[in-house]
Amino acid sequence: MDEKLLNKMIRNCFSHYCHDIDIFPLANDDYEQLYQKIILEKEKHPDIDLYELINDLVYEYLTK
Q1: Would you say residue 58 has pLDDT above 70?
Q2: Three-class SS of residue 31?
Q3: Containing domain of residue 18, as a range?
Q4: Which H or E run includes 48?
Q5: Distance in angstroms (rounded) separating the CA atoms of residues 52 and 40
Q6: How many domains does the chain have?
Q7: How far is it, in rounded angstroms, from Cα 55 to Cα 31?
Q8: Closest listed residue to residue 37, CA positions, set 19, 60, 4, 8
Q9: Is the pTM of this model over 0.70?
Q10: Which residues contact 26 (CB under 8 A, 6 or more apart)?
Q11: Record's Pfam families (predicted)?
């Protein structure tokens, strides 16, 4: 999967939750963790919608 595309999708998802990524930027480690979780979950469940998966993981990140 293209890492740049996933990072853009992650960034867009944060904005949907009214989280301004420019004001409160994520550390590269956080992006990498989200990216790895997405890849891992997509491998485990190939039929899951990527958009839904990213939304779930970003929501989980924001609420932890």
Answers
A1: yes
A2: helix
A3: 3-63
A4: none
A5: 14
A6: 1
A7: 14
A8: 60
A9: yes
A10: 14
A11: YqzH (PF14164)
